[in-house]
Amino acid sequence: GAVVPVVRRAIDSTPVVFGYSGDPVEAGLVNSFSRPGGNFTGATYMSYELNAKRIELLREAFPHVTRVAILSNPLHPGEQRELEESEQGAKRLGLGLSYAHMRSAAEIEPAFERIRLAGAEAMIVLPDGLVMQHRRRIIEFATSQRIPVISGWSEFAKWGGTMTYGPNLKASFRQLGAYVDKILKGAKPGELPVEQPTKFELVVNLKAAKAIGLTVPPMLLGRADEVIE
């Protein structure tokens, strides 16, 4: 996440294997996906393209939703691109969007107040480290407002979020471990292509949906990789 560009500026030659949710080429971490060059390689979680899909899933699951609030950390790499993708997805579906930013724990409650004032009927939480650190507070807020919340990493749903859709992080972490092993055996990081996820998972927390009085369509449940009951 946000720490990767900082490490890039500080380290010139030591091999670094990263996990990054933005575009590593755009961020200047590598020269290209296929030939990173230099001493950096790793995996990207392709957050940009997934945001419109999350909006589609949210609308499919809960057709009554017309106003959606996006909670995000503006310090997270690529946040602006993620918001743009979300806007395009919402526009196609005729949904109204509002935004609430949180850069630290101190900004969580003001962000919640903005969401309340906007009359949001659902929340999309852009995944990053700060969000995951405070996932319990975010999920408790959504539950108190009786609105569904979707994010990108499966742990969010397992903690009580309504749904998640995103890359299988365990598979990505295994690949990062394999890259570390190759580098320790002599491979050059600049010659190892940046990995992109090939498996995406939809997790639905049916228990959380029922707790706020919502029903998830059976067809969507049938497509879910995991249903928490």
Key features of this structure:
Rossmann fold; alpha/beta; two-stranded parallel ribbon; 7-stranded mixed sheet; 229 residues
CATH architectural group of the largest domain: 3-Layer(aba) Sandwich
* DSSP strand count: 9
Largest sheet: number of strands, sense, barrel closure: 7 strands, mixed
Low-confidence region ranges: none
Binned strand content? 15-25%
Spatial ordering of strands, largest sheet = 4-3-5-6-7-8-9
How many domains make up the 3D coordinates? 2
Considering DSSP H and I runs of 4 or more, what fraction of the residues is helical? 40-55%
CATH class of the largest domain: Alpha Beta
Description:
This protein has a seven-stranded mixed β-sheet with strand order 4-3-5-6-7-8-9, sandwiched between helices. A two-stranded parallel ribbon has the order 1-2. The chain contains ten helices and nine strands. It folds into two domains: 3-44 and 168-198, 3-Layer(aba) Sandwich (Rossmann fold); 47-166 and 201-228, Rossmann fold, CATH 3.40.50.2300. Helix 7 links the parallel strand 6 and strand 7 (163-167). With 229 residues, it is of the alpha/beta class. The two termini are 31 Å apart. The protein is globular.
Produce the secondary structure layout.
Blueprint: H1 3-10, E1 16-20, E2 40-44, H2 47-61, E3 67-72, H3 79-93, E4 96-101, H4 108-117, E5 122-125, H5 129-133, H6 135-145, E6 149-151, H7 154-158, E7 163-167, H8 169-184, E8 200-205, H9 206-211, H10 218-223, E9 226-228
Parallel strand pairs: 1-2, 3-4, 3-5, 5-6, 6-7, 8-9
Antiparallel strand pairs: 7-8
Helix pairs in contact: 2-3
